[in-house]
Amino acid sequence: MSKKEFERKPKSEKPVLAICYDFDKTLSPDDMQAQGYIQSVGYDIADFWSESNALAEQNDMDQNLAYMYKMVKEAEGNIIFNKKALADYGAKVSLFPGVESWFERIREYGALQGVIVEHYIISSGLKEMIEGTKVAKEGAFERIFASSFYYNERGVAVWPAQVINYTNKTQFLFRIEKGTLDVNDTHVNDFFAPEDIRVPFRNMVYIGDSDTDIPCMKLVNSYGGHSIGVYNANTEDKTKVYKMMRDSRIKYYVPADYSEGTELDALVKAIIDRTATNEILENKYYACKKETIEADYLSSKEEQKKRDLIIALENSGNFAATHSIIGELCRYQSWSDTEQETLFDIAIQNSQVFCILGDSDVKQFYKQLLDTFDGVSYAADLVKEEIEKSLKKG
User: Fold this and answer.
1) How confident is the model at residue 1 (pLDDT cuts 50, 70, 90)?
2) Could you read off the pLDDT of 33-80 as tens digits, one per residue?
3) What is the pLDDT at residue 178?
4) Is the model's pLDDT at 2 over the cut of 50?
5) Are 176 and 11 in contact (CB under 8 A)?
């Protein structure tokens, strides 16, 4: 079986700011299931969630799996539970003020600042219902990471295909970071050098409303990103955002009003402005770092070459080879005290060198060494004497 080739997002020349959203009570005032589906199967909203949570507790079951199971079960005999039905329910989901114009408006603002803004959903809600919303149909989201169903040959939902809870939400931040957005792409675990990361965590914003968002908020915060708690402006209930602020889960909190000119609008635009400026500094830092690494590499190669030439000179067995090696050594201007002392020792110990100290190339090389040598060396003194003799003869 051939291995699937996954499409991956490459690093852009412009900085990318990824804004990640929970959905229920972040973009919408209520749980999406409570805005049509629960009522259609004849349930009171509170009773549905109470039974769903009891099912999870009694069976050591994930709460999200429990509500998905209950949705399938309660649909039997009531509705055709397929993708179209879920999308239709999604189309009826209400959104907070300003949400419908928010995504494109913020993208456009980012473009003016030289920043690519991408919007992502990371939700325990249902992907099919989110896809049915007007904003999703208009292409608001780069990717929707949410729980979803597997459908049988008749197109009816029968089994969970993807279940997202508050802890495994964080994996999608790493996928966004590296551009490996397909949920089956294992290259999300590959190592990327910091300068090759597509969306560094410092360029991530996570917007959520409650405890289920805490792991993502904490992760984004820890690496220099921005976490924002939102609350319903109509109820003015700040209990959850106060708690998240006290626990250092969020950096900011604002009403869930996405209209132009609101606190949230101003806050996100300020983050975009900061991203544009900060990435200039980051790019300069990585350019300096790269140049330093390259310089260290060249220096290392130079030192290795010098060592090889010193060894070659020490083992030189004829005059022709000695002249050739000296010619190579003359290319280097900087020598350590230890290297100089070694070269002086070679000059008096290897007759192939000592006998031609008076030759112009050899004499010039060793004279330059002597001019920069500050140490005390018997071998250096002998070399100096031999060169002075050759000068008198010359």
Assistant:
1) very low
2) 999 899 998 899 999 999 999 999 999 999 999 999 999 999 988 888
3) 94
4) no
5) no
**CB pairs under 8 A, 24+ apart, for 44-53?**
48/74
Which residues does residue 37 pair with via DSSP β-bridges, in sequence order? none
Give the residue carrying structure tokens 């499409």: 7
**CB-based contacts of 239-245 (< 8 A; 24+ apart in sequence):** 240/209, 240/210, 240/211, 241/209, 244/211, 244/214, 244/217
Give the Cβ contact number of residue 144 at 10 Å. Answer: 22
pLDDT (average), residues 302-331: 90
d(CA 232, CA 383): 88
Instruction: List Cβ neighbours of 315 (8 Å cut-off, separation of 6 or more).
Output: none
Rounded alpha-carbon distances, angstroms, from residue 344 to 316, 328, 369, 393: 15, 17, 9, 22
> What sign for the dihedral angle of Cα 190, 286, 251, 270?
negative
Question: Which pLDDT score, from 0 to 100, does residue 394 have?
Answer: 58
Residues 6+ apart with CB under 8 A from 37: 71, 86, 89, 129
Q: With CA atoms as reference, report the closest residue to 270 among 228, 303, 214, 306.
A: 228
Distance in angstroms (rounded) separating the CA atoms of residues 199 and 216? 15
- The pLDDT mean for the chain works out to 91
What are the DSSP calls for 174-191, one per residue? Answer: HHHHHT--STT-GGGGS-
Which pLDDT does position 186 carry in this prediction? 87
Write out 215-255 in H/E/C secondary structure: HHHHHHHHCCCEEEEEECCCCCCCHHHHHHHHCCCCCEEEE
Distance CA 19, CA 122 (A): 10
Per DSSP, helices labelled H in the chain are 37-40, 45-58, 63-75, 83-91, 99-112, 127-131, 134-137, 170-178, 214-222, 239-246, 263-314, 319-329, 337-349, 351-354, 360-372, 378-393
The pTM (predicted TM-score) of the whole model is 0.76
Strand partners, 252: 228
Q: Which two tokens stand for residue 97?
A: 């003020």
Cα–Cα–Cα angle for 61, 62, 65, rounded to 5 degrees: 100
